[in-house]
UniProtKB/TrEMBL annotation:
Keywords: Signal. SUPFAM superfamilies: Histone H3 K4-specific methyltransferase SET7/9 N-terminal domain. Residues 1-22 form the signal peptide. This is Antitoxin component YwqK of the YwqJK toxin-antitoxin module.
Amino acid sequence: MKKSLYLLGLLLFTFVVLPGFAQESDAVADPDSSGVEKSRLLPTSTPVLLFSAVEDEEKEDKKKKKRKKNVYFGEKTKKALIKSSFREQVTYQVFHFTLNHRQPDPYIRDIYWYDSRNKAIKNSGYQPAAGYLLHGPYERRIGENVVESGMYYYGTKHGRWMSYDGKNILLDKRHYAEGWPKDSRITYYNRGERKIEKLTPIEYELEEGNFYHFYPDGQVAVTGEYRYGEKVGLWTAYWPAQKDRTIKKREIQYQSEAFTSDFKPYIRAEWDREGNLIYRTTN
């Protein structure tokens, strides 16, 4: 039988900016004259929030007395090491990656991959031609002390993740299921039929991560992002899908970073049901 529903949400709560760890910028382009959504990663239906066969694979692995070297969740991996220095501290990142490509889930914000050309671990902008998805155990050490450890599953955090201070004292412990933290809110149009209305990501009792609102038929209605309990970046509302086309209805610009007290959200652009631009801000 399938496992019970698990909840959505995601954010790597970064305590230290690591050398060799890069993120993409949040720059926003000008509104398109056409409201037809061209993003290939735009969700077109609600996610199936069920634990996958990964848990069963984990149980099978535990039953086996001997596990094949560098094989995790049935996938052959390669082991790698990144060494970097900052002032007098040397940081080591020991990790595994898979040569097999798997299309990232569009609902997951952070996909971790190894940029082999620049020898760096990144959490956005994954392209098969540029690198490899992390898969298997990960460990970060400063000198001889382990400061972070966990498991990746095709680029997503999975299972228990632990972080420590320089004296091996536990600072944080989190649990993930293929990238999703479990402390998040979900509302339904019909719970019995699993018709999801809203998915609100939660971390430490605050909204944190990508938010989704769906129409009753499962088509995306609103997308946006929370950071530290506040709306940030560009939030987009969509008209009900027509003829397999997803058309933007409205874009609202929020602060780029949380706690920007002098920023007032504004409507950036609006489109009619045919995708024709009917309003553009003059800001």
